[in-house]
Amino acid sequence: MSKQKIIVVGGGLAGLMATMKIAEKGVPVDLLSLVPVKRSHSVCAQGGINAALNTKGENDSTDEHFDDTVYGGDFLANQPPVKRMCEAAPGIIYTMDRMGVMFTRTAEGLLDLRNFGGQKNKRTAFAGATTGAQLEYCCDEQVRKHEAAGIVTKYEGWEFLSAVIDEKGVCRGCIAQNLVTLEIRVFKGDAVILATGGGGMIYAKSTTSTICTGSAAGSIFQQGAYLANMEFIQIHPTAMLGDDKTRLMSESARGDGGRIWTYKDGKPWYFLEEMYPAYGNLVPRDIASRAIHKVCVDMGLGIDGQNQVYLDLSHLPSEFLDRRLGGIMEIYEKFHGDNPRKVPMKIFPGIHYFMGGIHVSDEHMTNIPGLFACGECDYMYHGANRLGANSLLSALYSGTVCGPAALKYIKGLDRLSEEVEDKHFAQELKKQAAYNESITKMSGTENPYQLHQDLGDHMRANVGVVRNNKDLAANDQFLREIKERWTKINMVDGHNYSNQTILFTRELKNMIEVAHAITIGALQRNESRGSHYKPEFPDRDDEQFLKTSKSRWTPKGPVIEWEEVDVSLVKPRKRVYNVSKEASASGK
Amino acid sequence: MANDKVISLRIKRQDGPKTAPYWEEFHIPYKPNMNVVSVLMEVRKNPVNLQGKAVNPVVWECNCLEEVCGACTMLINGVPRQSCAALIDKIYEQTGFGKQITLAPLTKFPIIRDLMVDRQRMFENLKRVKAWVNVDGSWAINRGPRFADREQRWAYAISRCMTCGCCQEACPNVSNKSKFIGPSHIAQVRLFNTHPIGEMQKEERLNALMLEGGIQECGNAQNCRQVCPKEIPLTKHIAAMNKETIKYAFRRWRYKDSSGQ
């Protein structure tokens, strides 16, 4: 076994895939995760994973997948990494199949493929409507095999607090805290990979799990890592409204024939089919969410006068629905009560996915050497809008890039993290322990959970589907105030054992910092592109804003720098979905 | 008046693994469409008990809130289930509106604090039965094996197991002291023994099923099937694996060879 060691933080698909790649090369991994890795948020992905397998007689190709992805992302993604991802996709699916993922099959025993938004070919492999869970379980099992062999050590129930950075600015490990004992300790590692997911909880109500706080990204942001394109937040068009969370109703419902409608003049109005005849119900998510928002908020045509429209599957056979969409049928029936086989589901757009994230090189290394990021917490593959079923792909693919890249990096190091002077670890440990102590003693008047709800309410209202500079400026001001209010929190839990409130209070501070990066990015990007829509600036402005926004933390608030986008492979063109891609390319 | 309606909770609490448990009651304003998790979230926003005393927020585990992660299992009115999917209105349909709801931690696992327990044992037991497909590595080779749709349909149902612990809690033969791997894990063996590549190492898993804490400890109480939130027909899979292990044991004895060939 190698004397070197790599730390992976996060046990979702990206983290597990990176872990596998490293363990296979004989390098030990310490795998840190908030929850038993099998419970990571990847399990919530439903509809499927894209790969141009071309088994449906449609002449599909990885080039077509690549073009759909960069076009769907409104040309904001650097193109070469996206191309490599699309080329690797079929191999990844076949590997997952060999590892035992129970993909849905055709009559001849091959992987079935379904339609998804923003792409015309059947390209989405799936396991009913629980594809994320099936992929996550499979990776969990493979990593368990490596754990049983002794090369992977899991630390489940540990929270990443900060990176340890030496005098040369190189990351040499991290500090983490045990959720139960509250012990804070050093983890030495020659490289640290963050695979810590998105930050849906910053909006309080979203389709994401409660662990998706973006806290780890917020922490290294304050340590000098750049965040990128944070203003691009995917709002999923079809979510069930709820008090505690908005539950995802998969895009595969539309891929398999579901239709969106509301009443207009007393008759059903299939507005997506009317507005976008070429793609209909399968327009990309940003387009569908804006259309639903317009119909409900601007035109007042929501069902029962509320902000909701129908997602209708009731015309499809029950047996077909149970086999292909059973997972979401169950969720809707259990949490809403109505039977979606018989009556249309009521849905409205909900916060879903972070296209932006930690800024990384093509090799997934941040601007802090030795610190890597992959999965939803990076910014790499989706530009200004992610296509459905590309997230499971980018999570797995980025793990297959990041793991080997970290291995290559540690080979070139001149000394082991074990040989680094102890003072660097001791200093950071002391700093985090002191911070923890100060949180424990907070005795103000604010309840941290109530404060979190205020944060989410403001973010949803001001940095949602439609953005105005006035609201964004007000949100900036609100965030400055909430940072102040955070210092006046009352530590409502007095225990020093399994105290969830201490950890949540720390996360909340990091969430506010990330919220600030989102808000300032949105404020400064005076154009409309992908999920970022400003009526004051309704068009895409390539001249000024075909650029990645890079956010740098300062005590006075985030500072934005702009970076050129690599569009060397496909020339940016206008993005429209009312006509086919071919027609739009020829300028008709 | 509508806003006078309250949800009454009685919660079994415990400050740590070694301290004594106690019961505490809370009243939370009623709203339609709440579930047990959203009620607990209200408690922590204003952690004051029925007597009006400020207390520590209740500690419990949850994550996805849509019954796919398996984190939030607890005893709700004595039944093990996912608390996110325990809708208050549905509970009241059975018990009557406003009837007190009892929450308690699972009893088959060590307590950490309040409603939070340590279920690590289940993940350790997945190692015992080698619950994985033993591929050479994670690199792309080519297309995977063909697999019939009819097999996939029932195998997929097993593969939805969240390792939530409901079946373990309901099983009279699982306890803190017994080594029984429990119903979910026996079904997992069937899953991996069915996959065309997993099948190539099926003897290893059958061997594991026949060791101490294996399938022979099942007492056929059939509780597991009733509480599985994913409605996995666990008893059917246990019966099938029972047959498999007996066949395999006979072959192994007859041919004195662990491969059973």
Task: Write a brief caption for the model.
The complex is a heterodimer of chains A (588) and B (261). By secondary structure, chain A is α+β, with helices and mostly antiparallel strands.
- Class per helix and strand makeup of chain B: alpha+beta
- Global morphology of chain A: globular
Mean pLDDT of chain B: 95
Top CATH class of the largest domain in chain A: Alpha Beta
Question: End-to-end distance of chain A, in Å?
Answer: 61 Å
Report the count of strand segments of chain B. 7
Q: Given the structure, what is the number of helices of chain A? A: 16
The CATH topology of the largest domain in chain B is what?
Fumarate Reductase Iron-sulfur Protein, Chain B, domain 2
User: What's the domain count of chain B?
Assistant: 2
- Listing every helix as H and every strand as E from the N terminus to the C terminus, the arrangement of chain B reads EEHEEHEEEHHHHHHH
Taking all residues together, what is the mean pLDDT of chain A? 97
Straight-line distance between termini of chain B? 74 Å
**In this structure, how is the largest beta sheet of chain B organized?**
5 strands, mixed
Describe this structure in words.
The complex is a heterodimer of chains A (588) and B (261). Chain A is an alpha+beta fold. The relative contact order of chain A is 0.16. In chain A, the strands form five sheets. In chain A, strands 13-12-17-16-14-15 form a six-stranded antiparallel β-sheet. Chain A starts with 5 loop residues before the first strand and ends with a helix. Chain A contains 16 helices and 21 strands. Chain A folds into three domains: 6-232 and 355-421, 3-Layer(bba) Sandwich (FAD/NAD(P)-binding domain), CATH 3.50.50; 238-351, Succinate dehydrogenase/fumarate reductase flavoprotein, catalytic domain (Flavocytochrome C3, Chain A, domain 1), CATH 3.90.700.10; 423-546, Fumarate reductase/succinate dehydrogenase flavoprotein-like, C-terminal domain (Methane Monooxygenase Hydroxylase, Chain G, domain 1). In chain A, helix 1 (13-23) packs parallel to helix 10 (391-411) and helix 5 (215-222) crosses helix 14 (500-524). Chain B is of the alpha+beta class and 261 residues long. Helices cover 34% and strands 13% of the residues of chain B. Chain B has nine helices and seven strands; from the N terminus they run E-E-H-E-E-H-E-E-E-H-H-H-H-H-H-H. In chain B, helix 4 (149-158) runs antiparallel to helix 6 and helix 7 (202-209) crosses helix 9 (234-255). The longest helix of chain B has 22 residues, at 234-255. The radius of gyration of chain B is 22 Å and the shape is elongated. At the A-B interface, helix 1, helix 3, helix 4, strand 13 and helix 9 of A face helix 1, helix 3 and helix 4 of B.
